[in-house]
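[Meeting: bench + compute handoff]

Bench side (C.D.) handed over the final construct sequence. Compute side (W.E.) agreed to return the predicted structure before the next meeting so the bench team could plan truncations. Sequence as handed over:
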Amino acid sequence: MRPLSRASVKEPWYLDEYTGYAGPDRGIPSCLDPSSQLVTWPKPELAPRLVVIDDTGNGFRRVPALFPPCRAESLVIYKVHRPLTRGDLWKRVEGASSGSSSGENLVVVVSVNDLRTLPEVNISSGLSWERTARELLSQIRLNPYLEHLGRCRNLLVVLDTDEVFIYHSGPRPLARLVFDPKRWEGGFRTETKRSVVGWTNAFTAALAAQIYRNEGRLENLHEAAKAGLVAARRMLVAGYRGTSPSIRIPLENVFNLSDQSIFKLGDTSILKGKVTCDSFASVVVPASTSLPDPDPDYWRILETRTRNIRMRVAESLVRKGRHPVMEEVPELKIGGLSTSDRSEIESFSAVRKLLWEYLNGEDQQPLSIAVFGAPGAGKSFGVKQIAQSIGISKEAIGALNLSQLGPTEGLNSAFHRIRDIGLAGEVPLFFFDEFDSRNLDWLKLFLAPMQDGEFEDRGVNYHLGRCILVFAGGTSTTFEAFAERQEECKAQKLPDFISRLRGFINIMGPNPRRLADEGAAADPCKRESVNEQGKTAQDSAAENEESGAQTRSTAGTSAFQKTPAEMVADALGAELNDPGYVIRRAKLWRTLIMKAPQTPELRHNATR
């Protein structure tokens, strides 16, 4: 353990390295010997209304004489650890609950990490809340290895201090997700750069206290879970107080949920904004009937929250820069990068994780990833924001546009630059823009650097060293469109190039794909222009829709030969069903409005 500041013993202590814990080599700990009478309980007729059990798997579950007495009406909160659903204690609790009100009085709390340790259980981590929730629901309902947990009437799966998955079994199963819309799994811990042992106990204690205040009613279990997450985060920030070996948990700081002073240390604020129950949102998770494909309809919380008010949300974002419903929608923010689209969140999160693991690993070969999107979609911007967020400096990031070079012109110079940055002690990240230009002739020149980390210049082989190679597409807007050419482009070594990629990102950008495919310009102002009557194209399209008018769509007609209403109808038509596109466009318009007119009057007119 270590204090936050070694200069003062009054500072909080935090975990520096976790080495685990263990009991005796044989048998059970002496404190669990029934003859020691270290653990005593009231008489069965005086059994409490609420019983909280923290089973750490260290022998307690194998000593029935020490199990707490429970009445049929007692509410039991059982925090389990691996190995899961084993031992006499689990049998006792599961059997008792099955005989009382169909198990409604049992609440089981388990960490998602204990589930992930099972080789038969497949649950992703840190990509998107939607993916993790759907996979959890599918595994709990359909995986035979989790059958006992799936029978629990009230099951809470805790994902760090950022999310709780709640599952209610029974005739009408229901799943709910409590999550932090502004952070991913492990995001709070990463942001605070703190670690402690015992935060799950703080979660369980606050959960139990909230349930007790509700007189044991479990209808609003998700609200109690929010209080548990707040306490867990406060525990993470509070750390331990005192001097070694007399170190204690500052309970007065952890469980006074209204006190925000804990998040300040001297004059420094640990976090931006308050951490309260309002920091978390909740949503019902739709069920899937397939274990191999737990997310067949690609569920998006953004779509669920904005289904009937999408255009009102977009209008509010343009006019005010905010809308209350967006506070309940997952959003990925990395530096200046911000997106609420699930596909982009997952792509950026996966690449961020890939880059972080590479930087903190020992792999000596280059890491190669590809980025695809329409021109102006922000391919290089997004990756640069991710790179800088994990510690890659601006000086270590370079770029080269291959469409402006000859067959081999400038490529070796770029490799030498990468090599020089590496020799200076940094891990370089280098963009090769429009690598798919010139009929993919560039690909074969990258195979050796990608595979072996070497390149040849004037008959001499040079070693690249550890580096990150980012290939930004110029002619293909998606990886799928790029990869489907493998058969026809074998001579250009396309299959070999793809096999060396470790990841890819598809960036949708602010422009509708259909207009982009028709060759329309990327300037949104040209598509959402104002007509002669001073009405926006959206207003005209809305009026046409209300009056029953149908926009004309002539095959082969250029977008610029259509009226503003027809242009917007074509641009938004199917895209209105894509909430990510609508919100993305609204945010873009807000940015354009706030940057262009500088006077309140002009800004007001522009917003209108």
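W.E. noted at the follow-up: The longest helix spans residues 221-238. C.D. will use this when planning the next construct.
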